[in-house]
Amino acid sequence: MIRHDAIDDDDLRRLIASGHIRYGGNRRLRIYGRLDCASGRRMTRRARVFFGSEDEARRAGFRPCGHCLREGYLRWKGRMAAQASGHHR
Q1: Distance between CA atoms of 57 and 83, rounded to whole angstroms?
Q2: What string of pLDDT tens digits covers the 89 residues of the chain?
Q3: Is 80 exposed, middle or buried (0-12, 13-18, 19+ CB in 10 A)?
């Protein structure tokens, strides 16, 4: 995980171009999504973090965005509902 406020814009562009950064996240809300997601563009630099993969974001405790990663979000939501009801998938 890379905090946006810890790198400059040139480094950020290089990391995106090289594929080292593929997803952005909101560290307060613990949500990650695609870099082109409109929801992600609204967050502050201080709240934004970056990930190289969805696995990295999930291991850090983030959930998929309900807008740009809808299928992943619905799977996550189903797991949360199952856990809340005492059933494990």
Answers
A1: 20
A2: 999 999 999 999 999 999 999 999 999 999 999 999 998 888 899 999 999 999 999 999 999 999 999 999 999 999 999 988 876 55
A3: exposed
Residue 31, classed as helix, strand or coil, is strand
With CA atoms as reference, report the closest residue to 37 among 24, 26, 28: 24
Whole-model pTM above 0.70?
yes
E strand spans, 1-89: 2-3, 23-26, 31-34, 48-51, 63-64
The vertex-19 CA angle with 14 and 23, nearest 5°, equals: 100
Here the tokens at position 22 are 């593929």
Listed in sequence order, the residues at least 6 apart from 31 whose beta carbon sits closer than 8 Å to its beta carbon are: 25, 62, 63, 64, 65
CA 65 to chain centre: 7
